[in-house]
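User: What would this chain look like folded?
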Amino acid sequence: MRFYLATSSTQVDRADAVADALIACGFTQAYRWTDTVRDYGTPEQPNGRLLQGVALDELHHVQEADVLVVLEPAGPGTHVELGAALAARVPVVLVGPGFAGHNPFYYHPLVTWVQDAPADLDVAETLAPLLRFLVSPAFTYRRVHA
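Assistant: Here's the prediction, encoded as structure tokens.
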């Protein structure tokens, strides 16, 4: 099963730790955006050519993933990835207590919250059964026929 992991670009080390733990549980990472984030440039001098390719790659891989895992804090790009996943009918798992609020997309039927997230390395063990359910035939039937 392919997962796409989204979070703020300030959380590279945490994203890599959680992704590595999910991979150790037998999942496949659809795209590892953290490999390029250090080359994005600065807000004053962004690397436009690289960012253009990253934007295309990220949207493609979000839409091709079996599930989108979102760790808080979520950055602006994370919300784009959330929208792309929902548009492609990809189930989303929000991890962390900070997702409560008035964003209607956090309440979409394809979104599941894990509000009491454990320590980073335990996230994979906590999420593994949920991720397996989200790609199971029963849930896939619900996605297709919703």
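The chain has five helices and five strands. If you want, I can go into more detail on any region.
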